[in-house]
Amino acid sequence: MKFLVSSNDTGVVKEVIFNRGTDTSKQDATQPKSIKNFCSEPDATRKNRIVHMLDYESKFLVAVRLGGEVSVYEINDDEYEVEDEYKYNLLHNYKLEGINEDMPVSLLAVEELEGVIVAYQSGKIVIISFKEDKFDRAPVVVQLPGNKTISDFTANPSEAGVFAYGGEENDVRVIRLFEKDFLADSFDSKVTDKHFKPQVLFTAKNVKNDHLDLRVPVWITQLRFFTEQPESGYKFITATKYGQIRIYDTNHGRRPVKDYTVCERPILRMTFADEDETEVIISDSHNLIAKHSLVKVDEKALKTNSASAGTIIKPVAKLLGKFVDQFGATYGIRVGEGLLVTGGLDRYLRVFDLDTREVIAKAYLGVEIADLIVLEYEDEEEEEEVVDEELLKLQQRRRRRELRDAEEESDEEELWNQLDESEESKSKDVKRKKLH
């Protein structure tokens, strides 16, 4: 298995190669075949670290950096045994004007444009074309309708040119960015933002007031269209900062047709868990990674006691299980070939079996993981294991620290036991004296 990982600590990308059974937390377990740093340009630092990555048609690694940069690297095929220095060559680096302090929230490949769209928190989207594998077209910046901040921007896989977005006090909008017959051939040096006029097709309406007749706050964190769409209208699912997942069908009104509270903390990531799109996997801001059904419902799972309204019972999307091993928030999530790949603040890259939810491989990388992509799901043939020496030393120091902490805890516990025994002995002596 081969992965590319970006981090919150550095401006580089780590290429990680390991097989099933790898576990760096155990000294006698299988170790990674390779952990190497790439994309380490001279000016690559934490200040312009990579927030989002995309494998574009197995040709380019597109990396969105902080500070208004989009870097494009060549992905060279390993079958030619390319030397490391030529593995991920920098082909072009776009410097985006007016985006310096803006936070990128999503990165999408758009086939019709033969390129990508980068969405920023301010509501700006940047359209970049790689037509004919060239980088001579200037990026086009378009402001989304609403003039509010956004947390996610996603494409409708069933209808070209249709996208959706939402954010803090910015309920879901579905827009048409370009017409179906728009072709990349039209995207030349003369194309400007005037050629993209977003047309709002749908605006969601907030759910009804709660049992205290208070307005429910709006904060969309994630959006996904269902692949199978109705003949007219749109069907999609959202996740919120308040632990809810909501299903919308625009043929049934502006409010969600299903509204479930599935956790108590903000949902950071959400993805479909199966091809039928009847299950989702979510991660929250703490350490939760859970799989929920969208068709099986626990009708009486959520109970709220109210002095004015009494006991309120609400349905919840059935919990199918939790993926348990991580500590801290998870930002990188990828699903494919029956596997779930995750990475986050605890610096581990993990691979779970989707059905059993067991960890089948994990590696400590020494950096907080911001995003990840999977280049290969298959195990590589057995070869001599090669581990990054610096990382190995870090892992060894970490193990020694854990052992030292455990010994200190054991010594402290033994000291308290001795004190307790001493106090108990003194108490018995005092009782004996009183009896005599």
Describe this structure in words.
With 436 residues, this protein is mainly β. The protein has 2 domains: 2-386, Methylamine Dehydrogenase, Chain H; 388-436. It is built from 1 helix and 28 strands. The protein has one helix at residues 389-435; strands at residues 2-7, 13-17, 34-38, 50-56, 60-65, 69-74, 90-95, 104-110, 115-120, 124-129, 140-143, 152-155, 162-167, 170-176, 199-203, 220-225, 235-240, 244-249, 258-261, 267-272, 279-284, 289-306, 310-322, 330-336, 339-344, 348-353, 359-364, 369-376. The strands form 7 sheets. It has a 4-stranded antiparallel beta sheet with strand order 3-2-1-28, with no helix packed on it. It has a 4-stranded antiparallel beta sheet with strand order 4-5-6-7, with no helix packed on it. A 4-stranded antiparallel beta sheet has the order 8-9-10-11, with no helix packed on it. The mean pLDDT is 87.
Protein traits:
mainly beta, 436 residues, 2 domains, four-stranded antiparallel sheet, Methylamine Dehydrogenase, Chain H
Kindly provide the name of the CATH class of the largest domain. Mainly Beta
Cα end-to-end separation: 77 Å
Largest β-sheet summary: 4 strands, antiparallel
Shape by Cα distribution: globular
User: How large a portion of the residues is in β-strands, by DSSP E?
Assistant: 35-45%
Low-confidence stretches: none
Task: Write the H/E string, N to C.
Answer: EEEEEEEEEEEEEEEEEEEEEEEEEEEEH
Computed Rg: 26 Å
Helix content: 10-25%
The overall average pLDDT, rounded, is 87
**How many strands appear in the DSSP assignment?**
28
CATH architecture term of the largest domain: 7 Propeller
Strand order of the largest sheet: 3-2-1-28
CATH fold field value of the largest domain: Methylamine Dehydrogenase, Chain H
